[in-house]
Amino acid sequence: MQPVWGGGTTEYALDALDAAAKGVHYMCPVPPSVALPMIHVADLIAGMLLLMEAPVEKLTPACRGVAMAGFSFTPAELFEEIQKHYPTFSYSYDETSNPSVALFANTWPDSLSAEEAQVCLGFTAANLLSATVESVLQGHLSRRKRVTQGEDKTHVDK
User: Fold this and answer.
1) For 57-69, what is each residue's pLDDT tens digit?
2) What residues are paired with 98 via a beta bridge?
3) Longest dimension (CA), the chain
4) Do the bridges between strand 91-93 and strand 26-28 make them parallel or antiparallel, or are there none, so unpaired?
5) Sequence-ordered list of residues with C-beta below 8 angstroms from that of 72, at least 6 positions apart, any chain
6) Quick one: which of 13, 48, 60, 139 is 20 to 30 A from 127 by CA?
7) Per-residue model confidence as pLDDT tens digits over 125-143
8) Does this model's pTM top 0.70?
């Protein structure tokens, strides 16, 4: 069974990538210029492993609550990156379709500090926006190919 996301503020990015891979128009609930912090799952796992393996004496109070900072981007920046892979990807903005998403997006920080994780754990995110978009789109393509060839019965794109 494949993991399912949905309903949250940052999920707009995954929904947009899914729409691009399916070739359908995407209606974005997040204002075009609102940057939100994100992280690629591979970086998050790497950072969590560093945290688990860190000697307790190295974890000063400032290091016990570190953020695993990845990168930040706006919907406009994401859509520009998607169009490098899918030039016909179409989108529009409708902040009224889900007002809670726009409200939360406007109250979140634009970015997270990477300094503590770097100093305390030696962690720096390796996957930025372009690599993340490429990875997610490749995942959609591979999954659709397996489904089409009958190799994957657990996931069917709608």
Assistant:
1) 878 777 777 788 9
2) none
3) 53
4) parallel
5) 35, 36, 37, 38, 110, 111, 112
6) 60
7) 999 999 999 999 999 888 8
8) yes
